[in-house]
Structures are given as structure tokens and as C-alpha cells.
Specification:
The protein is built from five helices and two strands, in the order H-H-H-H-H-E-E. It is mainly alpha-helical and 129 residues long. Strand 1 and strand 2 form a beta hairpin. Helix 1 crosses helix 2. The protein starts with 27 loop residues before the first helix and ends with a strand.
């Protein structure tokens, strides 16, 4: 008797079509470097995992808040004023501690030049707005 040809079943690939979108992460080396700079000491592995998790949550909340401020103002771009409002609400920027003082204290000179306007010869202000 003639045998009927049966189609073979192909096993499904696992996990290829059902991947979750990958969220960008802050590099571990950067978190470790920042922590060492401010704590002035090394950190144990298990403690570093907690520091890393807290950093991720902090920046996620920070970006959510900035998005809300921008949306509330009816814009699609985050501006420096949004960041200053957020830092005021967190208590980092006050009347006694303005944003420019924080910039001068914690950022290197090349970043300060980009953020704080400076008058130079020829009646020019750097950075231009």
C-alpha cells in the first residue's frame, strides 16, 4: 500500500519573537566611578548591586519627572529651566545655592564653558543661545 506523505513539524524557536524591548542602561563602570569619587572608597560587590539598582531607579524617576514638566509646558523638548525646577523641588538648588554654583563645583571646565554664559572680547557671549 502507498504511504501518505506526512509533513514534519518544525519546532518553534524559543524567545526570538517574544523579546522584551531593551532599556538603555548606565554603564556599570560609570556608576562605580561616580560612587568612588563621592564616597572616596571602594565598594563591595553586593553593595554595588544595590547602588546600581538605586541609580537606575533614580534616573528613571528623573526622566519621568522631566517628561511631565515638559509636557505640562506644552513642549516636546526638555529645557534647562525644566531641570532647574526639578532640582529646586529636590532641594538641590536653592536661593543660597544656585544652579551655576553647582555647575562650577561639580563639573569640569569644558562642561562649565558649555553651560554658563561667559563674556569674551569683541562683545561676544559664549555659549550662544
Amino acid at each position: 500500500p502507498m504511504r501518505l506523505l506526512q509533513s514534519k513539524t518544525v519546532p518553534k524557536r524559543l524567545g526570538t519573537s517574544q523579546r522584551k524591548p531593551h532599556e538603555p542602561q548606565i554603564p556599570r563602570s560609570l556608576i562605580k566611578e561616580i560612587f568612588r569619587h563621592f564616597a572616596k572608597m571602594s565598594v563591595a560587590r553586593d553593595a554595588f548591586k544595590i547602588v546600581e539598582k538605586c541609580s537606575e531607579r533614580y534616573f528613571k524617576q528623573l526622566s519621568t519627572d522631566l517628561e511631565a514638566y515638559t509636557h505640562h509646558a506644552g513642549r516636546k523638548t526638555v529645557e534647562a529651566a525644566d531641570l532647574e525646577v526639578l532640582m529646586r523641588r529636590q532641594g538641590l538648588v536653592t536661593d543660597k545655592m544656585p544652579l551655576n554654583v553647582l555647575i562650577e563645583r561639580y563639573l569640569p571646565l569644558e562642561y562649565r564653558k558649555l553651560l554658563i554664559p561667559i563674556a569674551v572680547s569683541g562683545n561676544k557671549v559664549i555659549p550662544c543661545k
